[in-house]
Structures are given as structure tokens and as C-alpha cells.
Design goal:
The chain is α/β, with parallel strands linked by helices. The chain contains 11 helices and 13 strands. Strands 1-2-3-4-7-8-9-13 form an 8-stranded parallel β-barrel, surrounded by 5 helices. A two-stranded antiparallel sheet has the order 5-6. α3 crosses α4. It is globular and about 60 Å long. The two termini are 13 Å apart.
């Protein structure tokens, strides 16, 4: 199976995300479009666009960028609760149709400021049970007429979404808890992992395959992806010097890497933070120090080195079954070009 290479576009209210260049127009349509077009020009399929209350609306940003591009695929992060399934199914089907099938969807069930948009927090089991229903309803609405669904969390009666889709958007999903794995194993198309060591990723892939068999997965086999920071420089020595300098700035509290207490409560995030106890560098070049000083999510661990070093590590993940790579580093726009030109050709991109 050929690999899909995606980047990250930071739809942030504040500039300087994870050390990005600070500019007053950082989230203007012109700036974000320049990122999307650079991705098209430098070998990338598209980009993840994150979600969370306090950011510009993710779906709106994705639609605007899709309208400005021709091949760019937005991986649109969305939350059940922020969206009702029928509303989302209709919006996504419309954008997928208008863009010629370019929409990808990342379902997010982690904590957020839910009360700000009228949602209820619920415990972990509640959130993931709701997510499972959300996915089931959306899938049916994309492909069936007159859908009636009565669940604990969502219901629709005689619902038909137009246009119906013969090839609906792929559904990406994350989460490391037992509740999350039940959803991934049975309902998702692609399970995304954070930048864990190879042994941890291999163990999780095998477990999810077993769970899918145990619970009677009805869809095509689950695919797997990696979301990780890749710090690439012309030489190994320069990459490590830059990585250590960046971590030193984080340690000094320069404000570019503020911790996210909601994300840090997640099981998957805690797995990353716990890696530091195993060592500052794991496998060949997985750098765990960023997580000690505020790096969160994909910024918790970094793959560091020359393009050849990082490609060698990513090929090892691919040998485990990883076929979707969501990479990034800052400053975002120059790194789109550098890694697109230097790293992707070594990975077959």
C-alpha cells in the first residue's frame, strides 16, 4: 500500500505556535493558502488542521483552503458534540463533492472546553461511546437514503443527506485508552499514533488488529498512521544542535510551547511523557526531552537528524504497517519546502 504524506497547518488565534515565525497575518487566508499551495508544490498530499475551542473554526478554514487549491487534501479535525452527526455529514459530503473527493476527517474525542459551546464533558467512557455512535450515523448518512438511527447519544429519523457519496471521506482517529481502542478497532479507517518508540507502535498495531477480529470489524482492514515532529537539517550534527537549542529555549520558558492541561490528561499523551524515564533519546533518534519542557501532542517527541537519518527511522515505522505520515516542524512554511524536497523523495513521496 502506498504511503500518504501529510503536514500540519496551524489555525491558531495567536502567532508563534511551537516556535513558528511570529507575524501579524499568521492566520490570514493569504498566509494559510501559501502553506497549502506550498504543500501541493513540494510533494505533500495535504495537511491536518487541528481543532479546539479558542481556535478559528477548523471546517471553515479547510473549506477556504480547498477552494484555493487543486490537489490539497485537508485532514479536518472535528469533535462530536461540537457537531451533530447529520449536520456534519451534510457539510462534509458537500465539501467532498465540491472538491472532487479531497476531504479527510480526523475524529477527536479528547477533552475540550465543552461548556463554552453548550456541550457536556462526560467521562471517558461516555465520550467514546458517543464517538462510536457519531461515526456509525455519519457513515450511514453518506451512503444510504432515509436513515433512521436511535442510539443513546444521537438519533435521526428518515434522514437523507445529499449528495450521497460512493467514496466517502476516510475517517482518521486517535486515542490510546481502552475506550478509544474499542472505537478504533471497529469503526475508524486510520488509527493515528503519536511519536512512540517502534516497540510501542508495533504492540499497539497488533493489539488493534486482534481487537478488530474479536469484536467483528465490518469495514476494510484498519490502517495506521504516525503523527510526529520531524526536525530535519542538512547534517546530523546540525539537526541535534538545533534540536537541543530549541529545547533549551523551551526550558527557559520563552512562551512558545505552553503546556495544555487538557491534552496532558489523555492516556496517549501520558504515554509520551513517560518515555523520558526510558532515556532522552530512544531507538535511533527519537528525542524525548521536548515533553519535559512543555511540548505536547506531536511536539512531545521529535525525530531528529539529517533527511537520511529521519527517513531511515520512518521506514522502520513503515515496515511495521504505518502507511499515513503526518509530519511537521517549525517554522512551518520553510519546513514544508525543506522536508518536501529532502525527506519525501527518500520515502517514495
Amino acid at each position: 500500500m502506498s504511503a500518504k504524506f501529510l503536514w500540519y497547518i496551524p489555525n491558531q488565534a495567536q502567532p508563534g505556535h511551537r516556535g513558528d515565525d511570529v507575524a501579524p497575518d499568521h492566520n490570514s487566508l493569504a498566509t494559510l493558502t501559501s502553506h497549502a499551495k506550498a504543500l501541493e508544490e513540494h510533494g505533500w498530499a495535504g495537511a491536518l488542521i487541528g481543532t479546539g475551542w479558542g481556535r478559528p473554526d477548523t471546517f471553515t478554514v479547510a473549506a477556504a483552503l480547498a477552494a484555493q487549491t487543486t490537489t490539497f487534501q485537508p485532514l479536518i479535525a472535528i469533535r462530536p458534540g461540537y457537531w451533530r452527526p447529520a449536520n456534519f455529514a451534510s457539510a462534509a459530503a458537500t465539501l467532498h463533492h465540491l472538491t472532487g473527493g479531497r476531504v479527510l476527517v480526523n475524529i477527536v474525542s479528547g477533552k475540550d472546553n465543552l461548556a463554552a459551546y453548550g456541550d457536556r464533558e462526560g467521562d471517558q467512557a461516555h465520550r467514546y461511546a458517543r464517538t462510536k455512535e457519531f461515526i456509525q450515523v455519519v457513515r450511514r448518512l453518506w451512503t444510504e437514503e432515509g436513515v433512521t438511527y436511535q442510539g443513546e447519544h444521537f438519533s435521526v429519523t428518515g434522514a437523507t443527506v445529499v449528495p450521497r457519496l460512493t467514496e466517502p471521506p476516510r475517517l482518521y482517529f486517535g486515542g490510546a485508552s481502552e475506550a478509544a481502542e474499542k472505537v478504533a478497532a471497529t469503526e475508524a479507517d486510520v488509527q493515528l499514533f503519536w511519536g512512540e518508540p517502534l516497540d510501542g507502535v508495533a504492540e499497539r498495531i497488533e493489539r488493534l488488529k486482534r481487537l478488530g477480529e474479536k469484536w467483528g470489524r465490518e469495514h476494510a482492514p484498519l490502517e495506521f498512521g504516525l503523527r510526529v515532529t520531524t526536525l530535519v537539517r542538512d547534517t546530523t550534527e546540525q539537526a541535534w544542535a538545533d534540536a537541543e537549542a530549541k529545547v533549551a529555549r523551551m526550558a527557559n520558558g520563552n512562551g512558545a510551547f505552553p503546556p495544555d492541561p487538557l491534552r496532558r490528561a489523555a492516556v496517549g499523551q501520558q504515554r509520551l511523557l513517560d518515555l523520558a524515564a526510558r532515556g532522552e533519546v530512544l531507538d535511533d533518534n527519537l528525542y524525548t526531552a521536548p515533553g519535559r519542557f512543555g511540548g505536547g501532542g506531536a511536539g512531545t517527541t521529535w525525530l531528529v537528524g539529517s533527511a537520511e537519518d529521519v527517513a531511515r527511522s520512518l521506514r522502520k515505522y513503515q515496515s511495521l504497517g504505518i502507511t499515513h505520515l503526518v509530519l511537521s516542524d517549525t517554522p512551518y512554511l520553510p519546513e514544508i519546502k525543506r522536508q518536501g524536497d529532502q525527506l519525501l523523495p527518500l520515502l517514495g513521496g
